[in-house]
Design brief:
By secondary structure, the protein is α/β, with parallel strands linked by helices. It is built from 8 helices and 21 strands. Helix 1 (17-28) packs across helix 7 (412-429).
Length: 446
């Protein structure tokens, strides 16, 4: 220990991809030393079962090669229990905010090369496309009339998560799909196709396996991970100028950790500790489908025209589920967000609306036999997406030592490595060095 390497007690609140990436990059910082830096990561949940139906696959590593997969660590139950375990895992240089996206996309590639991410968390480059389709009616459901996606203004239009990146359906080129997109019903359903991303600028990971891996790699370097630890207060020094400790509840008992630097990465739960941070939440449902055969590496942003009478719909409408083929032989599909149920106390209490999951399954079955008639739904799940940011950096005001990293929207997996690296620089060097915070800096916007 030297005068230039002060002792730090760092507490990270939140065991999602942002918190786990911060833990990882803190332990990879040039000035990090286990002898001078104590790092603890606190996660409120102690189970990953919340937001997932009982009949769902509970451990995605069982779907891939067990010899190389990111194996489940029972001591980490609760890590990636929310959106970080139930997201799509799309990575793109065309994501936002652009001040941190290039750094994060590059770091994803470097992490995969260093730690075998292709096997450990399903990292691969892929294609992204926007497709316009007319749904075929799945067996067992009635249909009354076709509807053109570009002329469905008379019915509801249910927007997908990445709606800000999509063109108006009228602007889609009337092109045929690539030959290897052979799991989409291109002859009957497809009415428009346009490429959005290529393997040069688009990739994917399995978000739960990636998050679990970041947590394990951080723990291997000295981070203490405590799940089932719900933080109740961030405590300040007597004069209010510094963080002094963090109090949390675990097993009905209160515990206090000495803390010089507190990083709040609690996603949509962040405002419960930091009320001034305007992060909001919305629930999103998704399913994981096991086709009879692997499907090619495409992320599809769809606009599917449903006829009146399709499944539970009484009127024509256009829906926009997103579909991501995964290297583990599954496909992930997600629907729009809703605010029907308020944010629960922790991930463990997240409710799944089975009807919303069924709607997603019916919609994708209407454009693909591989994802419908010839497939099995192996997971039905829900999570709460943090919205409103991202906010990355030390809070303003008289109290030093409080850093926020939250509000990453639907690009949280994409931007987690950059967030982790920047926060490590903020905590250990006093300022972000690898990228400009810009509009992400909470001092500029709060």
């Amino acid at each position: 220990m030297t005068a230039t390497t002060p002792t730090k007690d760092i507490t990270i609140v939140g065991g999602g991809i942002i918190g786990c990436s911060i833990a990882y990059f803190l332990t990879r910082h040039a000035s990090y030393s286990p002898s001078t830096h104590r790092i603890a990561l606190l996660e409120a949940s102690s189970s990953n079962a919340g937001g997932r139906t009982p009949d769902s696959i509970q451990d995605p590593s069982t779907l891939v090669d067990p010899a190389t997969a990111s194996q489940r660590n029972p001591a980490h139950d609760g890590i990636a229990g929310g959106a970080s375990g139930k997201a799509g895992g799309l990575l793109a240089l065309w994501a936002f905010p652009q001040n941190i996206v290039p750094l994060s996309f590059r770091l994803h590639d470097e992490l995969a090369k260093e730690h075998g991410g292709d096997k450990r968390w399903g990292y691969r480059r892929c294609w992204a496309s926007q497709v316009e389709c007319k749904a075929r009616t799945p067996p067992g459901f009635g249909g009354k009339a076709d509807v053109d996606p570009a002329s469905a203004a008379g019915g509801p239009n249910i927007k997908g998560l990445h709606k800000d990146h999509k063109k108006d359906t009228k602007a889609l080129k009337k092109l045929g799909a690539p030959e290897d997109l052979d799991w989409l019903d291109t002859e009957v359903s497809l009415t428009g196709y346009e490429g959005m991303g290529t393997p040069e600028n688009t990739a994917q990971v399995h978000p739960e396996l990636f998050t679990r891996s970041m947590a394990q790699l951080a723990e291997d370097r000295g981070v203490k991970i405590i799940t089932g630890a719900r933080v109740t207060s961030i405590n300040k020094s007597a004069d209010g100028t510094r963080v002094e400790s963090v109090t949390y509840e675990k097993d009905s008992a209160a515990h206090t950790l000495p803390t010089s630097d507190c990083v709040v990465a609690a996603g949509p739960w962040t405002p419960r500790l930091l009320p001034s941070v305007p992060v909001t939440s919305a629930r999103a449902h998704s399913i994981v489908i096991k086709p009879a055969r692997p499907v090619s590496a495409y992320a599809l942003f769809t606009a599917i025209a449903l006829p009146a009478g399709f499944a539970s719909s009484s009127k024509p409408q256009v829906v926009e589920p997103e579909i991501y083929a995964r290297p583990d032989g599954t496909a992930y599909a997600c629907g729009p967000t809703d605010t029907a149920v308020p944010l629960p106390p922790t991930n463990a209490e997240v409710e799944v609306d089975a009807a919303r999951c069924a709607d997603i399954a019916h919609q994708v079955a209407g454009i693909s036999d591989e994802l419908g008639r010839d497939a099995e739904v192996v997971a039905r799940q829900a999570c709460y997406l943090p919205q409103g940011g991202p906010y990355i950096g030390e809070l303003g005001g008289e109290t030093r030592g409080i850093v926020v990293a939250a509000g990453h929207t639907c690009w949280g997996i994409q931007n987690a490595p950059a967030t982790g690296k920047l926060v490590s620089e903020i905590v250990l060097e006093g300022a972000a060095k690898s990228a400009r915070l810009g509009g992400c800096d909470p001092k500029r916007v709060l």
